[in-house]
Amino acid sequence: MRYRLTFVAGLALGYVLGTRAGRERYEQLKKSARQIAQNPAVRNTAESAALQGREFAGKALHTVSEKVGDRMPDSVADRVRSLRERNATGGGEDDWGTSNT
User: Fold this and answer.
1) CA 2, 77, 88: angle at the middle one, nearest 5?
2) How many H-runs (helices) and E-runs (strands) does the chain carry?
3) What residues are paired with 93 via a beta bridge?
4) pTM exceeding the 0.85 threshold for the entire prediction
């Protein structure tokens, strides 16, 4: 999903930068993108997808950690432990500077 979104964003950016329609078309596209991003349905869908992704990732982690067991490197185990603690306490920003809201 992230790769599709990145591709679409890159495609839109390329179109905006390469268009010969000028500033008016750029402003129109910018306004449309802002309206889509601020649409409550889009925001709710994105949030639901993020929560579902976190849930599936947690299940996958549990399944993998059962199978891998002690063979997991300490650095990975420590990172997973810190992520679990942060999520349990409702921690703020992630490594990319975005909040988990």
Assistant:
1) 70
2) 4, 0
3) 99
4) no
- In the numeric block, the tokens 């997808």 are attached to 49
Strand partners, 99: 93
Give the chain's end-to-end CA distance (angstroms, integer). 19
Which tokens sit at 100? 């988990």
Residues 90 and 23: their CA atoms lie apart, in Å, by 43
pLDDT along the chain (101 residues), means of 10: 82 75 80 90 90 88 76 78 74 56 51
CB-based contact 26:16 (threshold 8 Å): yes
> What pLDDT was estimated at residue 98?
58
Q: Measured between alpha carbons, how far is 26 from 31 in angstroms, rounded to an integer?
A: 9
Residue matched to tokens 């909040």:
99
**Cα–Cα distance between 79 and 89 in angstroms, integer?**
16
